Amino acid sequence: MNLRSFSIRRFLLLSFIFNLPPILAITKIGLLFLPLLFWANIPVLWTGIATAMGNTHFEIKEFGALPQTVSAYAIIITFCLLIAALITLIASKTKSE
């Protein structure tokens, strides 16, 4: 991997976009239930992390898994950062070729 081809700007923009629902939820902007639900449930339920970590970290209800602890939020944020890094790496490799 060529470090020069890794675009920090692209990574930061993608990280901001992927983590936008909790940022907007902190600012109390309305109509955020569905994006925040997708933000939490896509990495947690589709990968099985919620069932692996148990009920102490995630409360699984009708609408999906709700994070209960700081480590649960950290796992979701880490997942979003890994996806942003993966997209940035793929985009930088296709651009350099």
Give a concise summary.
With 97 residues, this protein is mainly α.
Report the end-to-end length measured between terminal Cα atoms.
Answer: 12 Å
Based on CA atoms alone, the radius of gyration comes out at 15 Å
Tally of strands: 2
Helical coverage, percent range:
55-70%
What is the overall silhouette?
Answer: globular
Uncertain segments of ≥5 residues (pLDDT<50)? none
Structural class: mainly alpha
Given the structure, what is the number of helices?
A: 5
Descriptive overview:
It is globular, with a radius of gyration of 15 Å. The protein has one domain (3-96). The chain has helices spanning 8-18, 20-26, 33-45, 49-53, 70-96; strands at 58-61, 64-67. The chain has 97 residues and is mainly alpha-helical. The mean pLDDT is 83. The protein starts with 7 loop residues before the first helix and ends with a helix. A hairpin with a 2-residue loop joins strand 1 and strand 2.
Show the helix and strand layout:
Elements: H1 8-18, H2 20-26, H3 33-45, H4 49-53, E1 58-61, E2 64-67, H5 70-96
Antiparallel strand pairs: 1-2
Describe this protein with a few key phrases.
97 residues, mainly alpha, 2 strands, globular
